[in-house]
Structure formats: C-alpha cells, structure tokens
Target: Undecaprenyl-phosphate 4-deoxy-4-formamido-L-arabinose transferase
Amino acid sequence: MKIETRTPLRPPSFPFQRGFYLPVLGKFWLSHGLALTWMVFSIYLSVPWVKELGEVVTVPVAIVLITGIAYLPGYLNAFMVVSLLFDRQPAFKTLDPKESLSILIACWNEEKAIPGTLQQLAKQDYEGLMRIYVIDNHSTDDTAEVAKRIGNELGLDIHVLFEETPGKHHALNNALSFVDTKYVITLDADTLLHPQAVRRLVARMESAPEEVCAVAGAVLVRNSRENWLARLQEWDYFLGIASIKRLQGLYQGTLVAQGAYSLYLTDVINEVGGWPDAIGEDIVLTWAFLEKNYKVFFEPTAIAFTDVPTKFSHFARQRSRWARGMIEALKQVKPWAQPRIFTRYLTGSNLVMPFLDFVYTFAWIPGLILSFFGIFWIVGAHTLLVLPLALLSNYLLYRYQKGVFRELGLHIRKNRIGFIFFVLCYQLIMSPVSVWGYVQEFMQRQRVWK
Model:
C-alpha cells in the first residue's frame, strides 16, 4: 500500500459543521439540554413499564432498576450523540514539527513484539530527533538484546534500560530520569504506528493552547481477524473508545492519555511526580493533570495499531484492570476537586458507571434470560428505545472514522458480523467483567500490569 507522507493535516468534519461556530461552553449546555429532553421523554414513555415492574419488585425498586437500565444510559448516550454532532477538530497550525522528543517503551517479555514496533518507528516521517528508550522490566526472555540489535540495525537512536522492580510505573519512571527533551511519548511494545503518527501527534500538541499538557493518540486493533473476540474489540476501539475520546477531547478533558500511545510535556509529568503506583497508572496520571487545570487533547488521525487479547481470560484481565484503574482515579482525584466544569462532569460521570454495570449485570442480563421464557418484566419492547441512539451514535462515528481513514490512505476492514454482535452483545461481556474489576479493587486483590 502506498501512503502519502504529506497528506493535508486538516481533520475531517461533517459537512453541516463548516462555517458554523458555537463556543465549547455553548455546545456543552445545549448537549445537556437536548439529552435531558430525551430522558424526560423516556420517563414519560416508561410509566407503564414502571407500574408493571413495580407490581413485582415494588415501585421504588423498579424506578432504581429502570434508571440504571434506561434513564441514565439514555441521557449519557444522547449527550454524546449531540456533542459528536457539534464536534469539529481545530485545524493544525503547523504541518512539520521538528521538536526533539523521547519515546518510552516499557517491556516485559516482548522479544517477539518489539522488532515490529521498532521497525514502524524507523518508518516515521517525523523530521525531529526521536530518542527511544526500551525499558526491560525484569523480562525472562531476550527482550533487551533483541531491542538493541534491531534498533542498531535500523539506525535508531536507541537506549536499553533495565528496571528490576516489577511494575510498569517503575519502568516508566526509571526512563523519565533520563529524558531531557520537551516532549515524551509512551508506546506499548506490541503497538505499531502509522507512518504519520508521531508527526500528527506532535502537530496537535504544537497547535494547541499552552495549557494543553498531553495528547492521546488513536489506538485501533491490528489482529482483528484472529477470532470472534478480536472482531468485537475491533469495533469497540474503532467506534466505542474513539467516540468517548472524541467527546472528552471536545470538552478539553480526555480522561485517559493512554500509555499505549500518547504524548506528554515532560515538565508536567515531573510536576505531578511521574507515573503513580496504580494499576491504571495512565488514568491516575491524566486525572492529576486535569486536577492542576491542565487540558488533555485527543488526536484521531495519530493512529497506532495494537494487538488485543484473543483469549477471554486475557480480555477479562485487561478490562477488569481498566475498571480498577477508574476506581483508583476516583479515589485519588475526586471529581469535585477538578477546577473546570467540563472535567468535573466528565470525571463525575464515572461515579455512576459501577451502578450501571451492576444493574446491567444483575438485572438486565437475568431479565434477558427471562424474556426467552415469555416474561418481559425487565427486557421487552420498551427496551428497544435504546437502539435508535446506539445506532445513530455508531453511524456518526463510522462516518467520521471513514473520513480519517481516507485521509491516511487506509481502508476499513469488512466486519459486518462483528459489528452486529458489538451493538447487540458487547455489553453482555463488558459489564460483568467490569463488575469483577470493581470487586477486585474493593478486596484489594494483587495488581498485575501485564
């Protein structure tokens, strides 16, 4: 595939957005107003449902359950849909940034994955200095030797470090002490960058206001053809995670500058004390930025491709770790301590996620099973009201992402069956796994980053 290395750096937008400007605060309140209107309409339509379910579990319990199943999810989805309709990435102010930067790759037994990652770094069209630190975090294979050999063969400015103490934050903080560049990028050892990825990430940072201290890249799935679980995750990354990050980026508070691929100001990382001792070290780090009134952006055209878990046990371990990371962030940085209204809302929304996941796991899923036996107390015709919003939000994201791919010379894989199962079934997997993560954090189970 031939990829132009100097494609126009103006992000795609929806046609009706051109020439129309609404301040971010206006978008925020208008989106809330329309989302509230949708929720009020939903409550009106659900009165018979409340009465019917109330005869079984009492009306107060019915209201609590339906709030978790329909009212709150509907409100949050409506807010996201309206916000995405208003979203428009600002144009880049610079096309060819050349600021020196450091790239940190924390590794544990990655001798098979690290060659591909380094090869893609060698293909970057970025003209500034890229100093690469591979941190061997007590590997038992030949990660360090392979990284050094491949890096030298590719002519990279590579430095191999060793960190004996297990834990990703230990590895990253070790390397941070060597960093003397303005920018630092974290990259997972199994993540491959698009040839324009670094240039676009730095271009977004250098086009952003001074208070922006980090930019999250877009991480998509590379191994989606391996099995059904990978196919589901392809749409989660392509539509679900991307939509949430676009929403958060619009309101200048991307909640996770993910360690898999993000850019940071080195001085600000040092200001907050480096990566924290947390299972979700990137989540807690990002919230610490927001607490100090910094902003975090998202750049959808700075794309990286990663391998996702193909075994359910590995998937459950990863996603439960993400759920634990969210709880850690809530405990360390309270939403009401955030200085800006946008980040107070965005981080505060996470307070209701455990409630939604518990209700979905212990009420909606049993209700779905009962519906197969003709008992429609919880799952029935009324729950179909959720589908229009889900389909609309996914359509908007697909249309936008298609524009991103076209700009980068990429093609969207055909995965129709995976999409159908993603829309209809993905939450059946995600909510129970997230609940398990919450339970692990409550019980303070051992934390494992890999």
User: Anything to note?
Assistant: DSSP finds 15 helices and eight strands in the chain. Residues 101-334 form a domain with the Spore Coat Polysaccharide Biosynthesis Protein SpsA; Chain A fold (CATH 3.90.550.10). The radius of gyration is 22 Å.
